[in-house]
Design a protein that fits this description.
Layout lengths: L1 H17 L8 H19 L10 H29 L1
Length: 85
């Protein structure tokens, strides 16, 4: 489980670079989104057995899912920030 959290953090960080959301204030949020999406999408890609094995396809699906989820998260965050100002 610790490995999955580390992989999720790295995928969240890499996805934040690709999405151009490398805001220093939101590093923790980007990492949390990466961990969440890695756990959920990786679990779905491995048919519920993510803790048994970690496959390349699960990592790829997790990375793509992290990019999508992070892009959506940043769009919502920007819309909410604009609404407050």
């Amino acid at each position: 489980m610790i490995v999955l959290l580390a992989v999720g953090g790295v995928l969240g960080w890499l996805a934040s670079i690709l999405v151009c959301a490398d805001d220093r204030q939101c590093v923790l949020a980007n990492t949390a989104v990466g961990v969440f999406s890695t756990l959920v999408i990786g679990w779905l890609a491995n048919e519920g057995s993510l803790l048994v094995r970690l496959t390349a396809s699960a990592l790829l699906f997790s990375f793509v899912g992290t990019i999508g989820l992070l892009a959506g998260f940043n769009i919502l965050r920007q819309a909410f920030t604009r609404q407050l100002h």
